[in-house]
Amino acid sequence: MRSILMILAVLAVSSTAFANDIYIEQVGDTLDLDIVQDGTDNEFGDSTTDATLRGDDMTFSITQTGSTNKIDAIIKGNDYTGTWTFTGDSNEVNMKCASTSAVDCETVTVNITTTGDDNKFKVFIGENSDADNLAANFTVTGDGNVIDVINDATASDVTVTLNNASSTASGTINNVGSGLTTGSGGNYVDIDQSGAGDSAGHSITLGVVGGGNNVKILQSGVKDNKVDMTMQGDGGDVNISQTD
Amino acid sequence: MTSTLAKLTSISLLLLFLLAICTPVHALAPDAGAIGKIKGSGVLERNGAVITGGNGIGVKSMDTAVTARGTMQIDFVDETRVDITEHSRLLIDEFVYDPANGVGKLGLKASLGTMRYASGQIAKRYKQNVRIRTPSATIGVRGTDFILVVDEVGATMVTLLPSCDEDGYCFTGEIKVETDVGFVIMNQAFQTTMTSIGSQPPTKPLTLDLDEKMINQLLILRKRMPYEDEEAIIQRQARRMFDFLGIDFLDFTDLDTDALGNSIESIWVTQLDETDYMLADVLYDMLDKLNQLLYALFKDHLQLQNEKFFKEEASQYGFDPETGIRFEKDGDYYVVERQDNSGDNYFRLRLHNQHGYNLDLGQNDWEIFEYEVGPSGNNNIVVKQSNW
């Protein structure tokens, strides 16, 4: 079954804040979903009721402009491509792919771009089931952003580009932990790539420009683990661990 | 009967002849010299026999002088003298000296140890016929002194020394040290070369800073009289002064001390004293002051230059096989990369050169801390790899 769902929610913000909440339960293959939300306090799913996208060959894109927007989504299926774009501060994303499902999560490509401060992105890929071939690309311009990627896919490529060059941030974000607490300073990146990896293995490409960026990378797997990081700025704290 | 007697006589003569020709030639040859002085244990090996060393014992060609815990002095008939120190071995390979017929030839083979040699008339008149061999080198003497040391595996060190004649005039001659594949010629005092094996050329001569104590441990070839005779030379010179001035210069007691050391020291002191160093000292002081002024004037600039130099260029680029880290410079970035032993884990850090980075890198039991990249900075990077 081919299903195309197009939802456009526009919130005109005047003197009073207003929120659009979207909850989707999609079943079927070849979903092509584009969501555009303007305003503040918009949500696509929430922490108690995730937006669930079930099926193969999905394309799901969302653009949120404003502050304190939120996405909670679960993707169950193969061949997912998503482009998520945020402009504003204090936005939050929680994305899971096959985290609790027996359905494979294979060939996932996520492009997340944000311009703003204090945004939080948490991506779980196959942490409880099989998953293959993740390509997650983060482009972050601003301070105090948190990127937390837990990836158990057998092959994954994560690209993170941080730029807070216009900031005077020099201190790193500390005590982030699992609570994804943002803070003053640069950006915080925590990437955990586990799983056996295939012939391509795991790879992380980091571009860090600006001060006070805190990067933690854990790679494990019997195949290749690669980290390629370019760094420019002061007060950075980078911790890379590659284990088998 | 007569016939029988004749036969017996013939047999006796034949036996006498055979006995005569069976006797080693060198046993009948005249002595090349004698042991002038011996201290401790030392022997002469001659035709399989061992002759206990003693004062006045004759020394012949093909004798091998061996010392253990002792020293031995051999005086040759041409006034050549050899002082052998402890644990040394020297073969009198060949000695021929017939001044009446203009013949002289000297060959020695030093196979182990340290010895002191003072050449005599052969070296003076037939210097081309003096040849000293070691297991790894052959030294041609061209009228000068030198040190020779041979170790247990035949490696040889040769050091050229200045030579002084009986009138106190010192000069530096020349020696040729050669192996099977090359040679060096040394003609400056205290030049030194070494040979390890015959199939390798001698090392390029270097100049050593030796003192008298070191020289006393070594073999020295000299063209002048033995060291003890220096006192006699001084006494003769003093006697001439006494005869001329009527003053008894022999009353001074300086000669009671180490005549050898003093004599050589005085030679060099005398030569150095011939040079007026006062002007040089003044010029040196002037240059020193000038350098200090220039340094004060350009100190800041120099420090900036040095800082830039040391921070950017003193680093070792390329691959370090000990750590497995490759460090390169790519435009405005330093590149630090490493692939672990298994080949599975790899990281590459491109670090902008305007910032400083402190790297702690490690794999299992191997760790390197405070690997500094770039100028001083507060970026801290820790990379751990654990896999083999």
Tags for this entry?
heterodimer, A: 244 residues, mainly beta, eleven-stranded parallel beta sheet, nine-stranded parallel beta sheet, 20 strands, 56% strand, flat, disordered N terminus, B: 388 residues, alpha+beta, Jelly Rolls, 3 domains, 16-stranded mixed beta sheet, four-stranded antiparallel beta sheet, 7 helices, 25 strands, 26% helix, elongated
Structure description:
The complex is a heterodimer of chains A (244) and B (388). In chain A, 0% of the residues lie in helices and 56% in strands. By secondary structure, chain A is mainly β. In chain A, strands 2, 3, 5, 6, 8, 10, 12, 14, 16, 18 and 20 form an eleven-stranded parallel sheet that branches. In chain A, strands 1-4-7-9-11-13-15-17-19 form a nine-stranded parallel sheet, with no helix packed on it. Chain A is flat, with a radius of gyration of 17 Å. The model of chain A is unreliable at 1-18 and 169-182 (pLDDT under 50). With 388 residues, chain B is an alpha+beta fold. Chain B is 26% helix and 40% strand. Chain B folds into three domains: 22-221, Jelly Rolls, CATH 2.60.120; 229-273, no CATH class; 318-385, no CATH class. The model of chain B is unreliable at 13-26, 217-228, 267-276 and 309-315 (pLDDT under 50). Chain B is built from seven helices and 25 strands. Chain B has helices at residues 2-22, 25-28, 121-125, 212-216, 229-245, 259-273, 278-312, and strands at residues 33-46, 49-52, 58-59, 64-76, 81-84, 89-98, 103-118, 130-133, 138-142, 145-150, 156-161, 163-164, 170-171, 174-178, 183-186, 191-195, 206-207, 219-221, 318-320, 325-330, 333-339, 345-352, 357-363, 366-373, 379-386. In chain B, a hairpin with a 2-residue loop joins strand 23 (357-363) and strand 24. Chains A and B meet through strand 19 and strand 20 of A and strand 22 and strand 25 of B. Strand 19 (225-232) of chain A pairs parallel with strand 22 of chain B.
